[in-house]
Design a protein that fits this description.
The structure is a single chain. The protein has helices at residues 5-15, 19-30, 37-53, 57-71, 83-95, 105-110, and strands spanning 77-78, 81-82. The chain has 123 residues and is mostly helical. A two-stranded antiparallel ribbon has the order 1-2. Strand 1 (77-78) and strand 2 (81-82) form a beta hairpin. The longest helix has 17 residues, at 37-53. It is globular and about 40 Å long.
């Protein structure tokens, strides 16, 4: 299956940890169809990770919760991605969030945030 170039680039940027760029790429597609909750969920996952990197725990918690809610509608697979794995990843990220609204950049870097590689499944 052919996927939009921005979608493929989103996955590449996500895997490289470039979460701000992820948002910009996927937002272009999502703006064409704001009813697409799958894309919105992926967007919010990337934004949550971006917030987490910079210590905005409240923002990360909010984005992860929304991402999980939107993506759960698409289990087990959608857009070539294993949505169940993505949801487990979100839950693992939520589990490392400290009980605070914000933390310093240094504290954020010290968190043991799990990593995930997104891989588009074949046909």
């Amino acid at each position: 299956m052919q996927y939009p170039a921005q979608y493929v680039q989103f996955i590449e940027k996500f895997n490289a940890g470039e979460y701000y760029e992820c948002h910009d790429l996927l937002e272009e597609i999502w703006m064409e169809d704001k009813t697409d909750k799958f894309l919105q969920g992926l967007l919010q996952l990337a934004v949550g990770l971006y917030h987490l990197e910079y210590g905005n725990i409240k923002g990360a918690r909010w984005m992860f919760g929304n991402a999980r809610k939107y993506l759960s509608r698409y289990e087990p697979m959608h857009g070539g991605l294993d949505v169940r794995d993505i949801i487990r990843y979100i839950q693992a990220c939520e589990a490392v969030l400290p009980d605070a609204d914000t933390i310093s950049f240094e504290q954020a870097k010290a968190l043991e945030v799990p990593s995930m590689r997104l891989v588009i499944a074949g046909p």
